[in-house]
What we know:
Blueprint: H1 8-11, H2 16-31, E1 48-49, H3 62-76, H4 81-84, H5 90-102, E2 109-111, H6 115-129, E3 135-138, H7 144-157, E4 160-163, H8 169-178, E5 183-189, H9 201-210, E6 214-218, E7 237-240, E8 255-258, H10 302-312, H11 320-341, E9 346-347, E10 359-363, H12 367-376, E11 379-380, E12 382-384, E13 388-392, H13 400-416
Parallel strand pairs: 1-11, 3-4, 3-5, 5-6, 6-7
Antiparallel strand pairs: 2-8, 7-8, 9-10, 10-13, 12-13
The protein binds pyridoxal-5'-phosphate and (2S)-2-amino-4-(2-amino-3-hydroxyphenyl)-4-oxobutanoic acid.
Residues 53-54, 143, 193, 430 line the site of (2S)-2-amino-4-(2-amino-3-hydroxyphenyl)-4-oxobutanoic acid.
Amino acid sequence: MSTAPPGPDVxxxxxxxxxxxxxxxxxxDLAHAATDLRRRFDLPEDVVYLDGNSLxxxxxxxxxxxxxxxxxxxxxxxxxxxxxxxxxxAPTRVGDAIGRLVGAAPGQVVAGDSTxxxxxxxxxxxxxxxxGADVVVTDPGSFPTDLYVTRGVADQVGWDxxxxxxxxxxxxxxxxxxxxxxVAVVSLSHVDYRTGRLWDLPGxxxxxxxxxxxxxxxxxxxAGAVPVDLDDHxxxxxxxxxxxxxxxxxxxxxxVYAAARHLPHVRxxxxxxxxxxxxFAMAPDHEPADGAARLRIGTPPVLSLLALEAALxxxxxxxxEAVRARSLSLTRxxxxxxxxxxxxxxxxxxxxxxxxxxxxxxxxxxAYGVVQALVARGVVGDFREPDVVRLGVAAPYLTxxxxxxxxxxxxxxxxAGEHLDERWSRRATVT
Length: 431
Ligand SMILES: Cc1ncc(COP(=O)(O)O)c(C=O)c1O
Ligand SMILES: Nc1c(O)cccc1C(=O)C[C@H](N)C(=O)O
């Protein structure tokens, strides 16, 4: 199966519906040609890659940037590179580059470490900014690491964890206020990793503020795919990873955002020496640096930061609003193709554009087998417990033609019963 460039042969299904969809795919790809950034990525020709919400594709230029960082900066220039190649400033420089994609003015984002660590740090910062409050509100459907970290920090600072579906958060906040409870922070994911549900970040941020709480957002599944506009919406704290829609590579550095109004008061729970105002004074007492640098920790993963920095150039000249418009068109079309070719498909992701992130999920009792059979046919998605076939749509490098190919392959897998193959009876470690 070849998909690049997807021509009429690949698209032809031999059915009336298929022909109509094929013609539509061609028309939509023409209409969205300005945001087709496939040439900025190094993707295998024979794969429809629908897992960029787990691990983004490799952007052109990253391998060269890493080679230069290793051979020239590390290999030749050695320790001087901290100064001469800007290694020291990389966490805040890359943080600012991420900030451009999530609507944060410079000086509020720092990159490095993992989402897990950054969330831990952000929740502790919230605790220090809201002394006397003793509740954290979060979504029971959050990604597991978020639940574990939230419970862990709650134990450390003496909070109660109140679980509420994001739709129910305003009512939960009202109930808590009515019983005299003070909420420190509402901590939510912008897009649900399993369902692709996009939550109302502006409205829920306002609801948190109205209750006297801070709003903390996990942007793992929205940064680089959905406009976030952190500053415009008055978000207090945010975290996210670098390896999904930001395409920074496996284990790419994560990031933390603290709004400028909070930064002078933010306490860093892991105040390593890179967060010191004068690190090379080697002073025995910690004195926080100004700005986002106070959220640095210890020595950053320089090679990974430079890889992420090069990866972010894939977005150069393309506003995230344009990426979103392409993503909506792709997910809308994918949904329509699946509905047409797989009658009765049970969608888990919302139909409504305003409520859908950048993925389409379908429930199936043999979802794991369906995903494996799709992968065997060159359509790479992933399986999420308990029964979700998750198709992530990283708009910059995908086409409408590929959406149709994915739907056709899904229909073919189900028609042939390939999902029931014995090969899929043992699950891989990473699903
Ligand atoms: C919403 C969300 N938060 C956090 C994580 C993971 O955190 P970490 O990057 O520390 O593994 C993921 C994905 O792995 C995620 O989807
Ligand atoms: N972070 C991951 C990892 O370390 C290994 C395998 C997958 C991942 C992922 O990113 C999974 C992803 N957060 C998800 O939404 O399912």
